[in-house]
Amino acid sequence: MTAVTTASGVPAHPPVVVLLPGQGSQYPGMLRGLYGHEPVFTRVLDEVFDGLGAEGARVRDDWLSDAPVVPLDDVRRAQPLVFGLDVALGTLLTSWGVRPVAYLGHSAGEYAAAVLAGIMSLGDAVDVLGERVRSLATAPRGGMVAVAANAAQLARWITPQVVVGAVNAPDQIMLAGPEPELGEVTGRLTGAGITWMPARATAGFHSPSVAAACAATVPAYQRISYRAPQVTVVSGYTGRALREPLLSDPRFWAMQPSRPVHFGAALSHLLGPQGPAGPGPFLLVEAGPGQGLSAVARRHPAVTRGGGTVVPLSSVRAGAERDRARLAEAARHLRPTADASADPVTDPPTTSPGEEPSWTPAGAARP
């Protein structure tokens, strides 16, 4: 939504910014409690699974299983699932009448942002997603690690293969690269007393080790029909609003998994006085699995000084009741921001044990 003001010029409700997580946010059982329960969410996910053909059915089966054939951290599962969940939650938001002023995705979340903002159709994006995943699955084994340090402190350990893959905040760095090189670097970090933690990745995303796999997908991205966004997308790769010529550059989209993410810079631009969210207050909604981006956003100076509220749509642990309770709580935060022309968000009904509850935004389309 665009910011609505009163006659005095004071915002009637805060502008909404949607944050979309990428690979690494996945966890077993994530958001399964909404599938088959929230019609809009279910419809979008089924469209993603169906668009991926036979592999999409296998992705869905592994997501819904407690014993997946392919682990969810594998790129063949994490990428399509995180993309699908991001788009499904983002679409659910707009079905409630919430009109974001901007989208900001982290890594693969930017691909979901492109769909939600209208840069590319969901059909085109899913068609290319299949090729992207197949190609990335051929990349050398590797990983990413989160390090509690700044880029200057880590400079001595950077190599041609192990690089800064993401800067989420001044003291939150992701290193990425292939094995065994990454393991050698983390060993040196441990020896130096620097704290690090492995991320949920099986390849060195956002490092040169996946560049060849990314380059192989350029022809696929050339098939997409790109359009001007209906909502601003702040790119995590440039730190600014996405515009031409990058917006319709197939190589820009194809090479994203091999290039560093500057999420912290993008968030600072978005929440700055000249950014699309204005000077605040604002409402940041994380639409995707987990609450990783919410944790980063809550520590941002623009939020800590009282200029914003952060609302995740997902829990951090699996469980149908957790999923539904978290979404209901988010709906209560978001109700005042809904477009006045849209039907209001309904409260979840009270059900007896054993009953199958079902609540959706009033007027939301059913699959």
Characterize the structure shown.
- The chain folds into 2 domains: 16-140 and 208-337, Malonyl-Coenzyme A Acyl Carrier Protein, domain 2, CATH 3.40.366; 142-198, 2-Layer Sandwich (Alpha-Beta Plaits), CATH 3.30.70.250.
- It contains 14 helices and 9 strands.
- The chain has helices spanning 39-51, 53-64, 75-95, 108-116, 122-136, 151-154, 181-191, 211-215, 218-221, 250-254, 263-271, 292-298, 301-307, 320-334; strands at residues 16-20, 102-105, 142-147, 163-169, 172-178, 196-198, 232-234, 282-286, 308-312.
- The strands form 2 sheets. Strands 7-2-1-8-9 form a 5-stranded parallel sheet, with helices on both faces.
- The chain is globular, with a radius of gyration of 20 Å.
Q: Mind sketching the topology for me?
A:
Elements: E1 16-20, H1 39-51, H2 53-64, H3 75-95, E2 102-105, H4 108-116, H5 122-136, E3 142-147, H6 151-154, E4 163-169, E5 172-178, H7 181-191, E6 196-198, H8 211-215, H9 218-221, E7 232-234, H10 250-254, H11 263-271, E8 282-286, H12 292-298, H13 301-307, E9 308-312, H14 320-334
Parallel strand pairs: 1-2, 1-8, 2-7, 8-9
Antiparallel strand pairs: 3-5, 3-6, 4-5
